[in-house]
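QA checklist item 7 of 12: single-chain prediction sanity check.
[x] sequence parsed
[x] length recorded as 290
[x] structure emitted
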Amino acid sequence: MEILQTSVILGITLGMLFALSSAGLVVIYRTSGYVSFAQGDVATAALFVGLLVHEAGWPYWVLALIVISSGVAISLVVGMGVVTPIERHGLLSAALSTIAVSLVIQGLLNLTSGGHTRAFPALSDARAFRLGDVALQWTDVAAFGCSVIAFVALGVAFRRSNLGIAMRAMSDNELAAELLGLSRLRLKACSWAVAGALAGILGLFVAPIYSLTPQSIDAFLVFGFAAIIAGGFDSIVGAMVAGVVIGVLTNLVSAYLDPNLVPFSLYVLILVILLVRPQGLFGRSIVSRV
């Protein structure tokens, strides 16, 4: 019973980070029609900037602001300077260009950092409280809280704010949205900026756990891609629910079966969902009129 309780509680906490990693992918997809494979590398580059701030002796809250701001800036450069101009050659070309950007960022980070594993500071190592038999640290509580706040803010923004409604309109019909006077470039810039901020927030909680290398956040983002596939590419709620389910599932498999079976169980889950609902659990079906 103790193993089950620990697996579920820690799985929910970890699952919210999986969900947060997929949220940035959803935001870009809703305005552009493709996902960015460079999302993890944007977070990594921002974290290396934050590491310089930490080594200079600045407090953690300054480091956090620098990482999030750097994530926004780097994401805007990637999205508006490289990827969006390539969209004129098709969405597939734009999506593939994010892979090229990812490899370039990794190469630059390997050159500048030597590819060595670096320790990254955590918000706090202090224990917050016990939930049943599980001792939670303040970092776990902060990660869960920030993820919940991010999803609530995104949900309200997409459904209530003028900007969110404009993004939804752009996602549904880009040509019609432009004819109504909506700025395609402005909306795309907003989506890349939001995705960059989410990447920075994610990195602040992932890097202390897995340490920091040019590939560490990319390895974690695999679970984010799984969550967006399972939950639906255009659904914020789907990303959150799928992320939590994947977090709990992988923890249970690791605890009761074998940690080596975690990737296998993840792929089986994705295949089953795609067979039953190709658009994901919460994704919208594409309706074509003839």
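[x] summary fact logged: Strands lie at 127-131, 134-137.
[ ] second reviewer sign-off
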